[in-house]
Specification:
Length: 185
């Protein structure tokens, strides 16, 4: 029994072997995350969500230094946790693996309610205080900025709804060909 000598691998088999190795494991997932994050950051969703998170965290910190109604901090913490959930969801590319949920619509609804809750929180904060310290006013302005960023993200989300892709236009037939057909008839 002699061992069969291995045949030299061709270029195509070698690239297939490398592809099979990189397709599995951490490297594949890292490439998947990088590719799914590009539209999130390039289209502006990531920057707007990050700015909204910064405004929410800053307003929570400022409201902690003044005496504010507990409902205001409750609204801010609720919106912060939901925003962090969506931020982590898009950063880790989890939305690509959970395809049974329509993520653009759920993110749109989240931004809509975030904007409404924060505007309602600003109105409540304005009505609940007679004397308004500077820190309190700054926290209200930051809540307004967070609501504005949620509205901007809502406008950016409209482009990514399913079925909203631009349809390729069919090339029009040249006029000469139509005229030639009319002349023959």
């Amino acid at each position: 029994m002699t061992a069969k000598p291995q045949e030299p691998k061709t270029f195509g088999a070698r690239t297939k072997e490398i592809w099979d190795q990189t397709k599995k494991g951490v490297v594949y997932h890292q490439n998947e995350v990088k590719e799914s994050n590009k539209p999130f950051w390039i289209n502006g969703h990531g920057i707007v969500k990050l700015l909204g998170l910064i405004c929410l965290i800053a307003s929570i910190k400022i409201f902690a230094t003044t005496t504010a109604h507990p409902i205001l901090t409750l609204i801010l913490y609720m919106e912060l946790f939901i925003a962090v959930f969506f931020f982590i969801l898009y950063i880790c590319a989890i939305n690509r693996y959970l395809s049974f949920i329509i993520w653009p619509i759920s993110d749109f609804i989240n931004d809509l309610f975030c904007c409404l809750f924060l505007v309602g929180g600003i109105y409540f904060a304005l009505e609940s205080r007679t004397a308004m310290p500077v820190n309190y006013f700054i926290a209200m302005v930051l809540m307004g900025l967070a609501a504005f960023f949620a509205f901007v993200d809502m406008c950016l989300q409209r482009r990514s709804f399913p079925g909203q892709e631009e349809k390729p236009q069919k090339p029009k037939a040249p006029k000469k060909a139509k005229e030639a057909k009319k002349g023959k008839a």
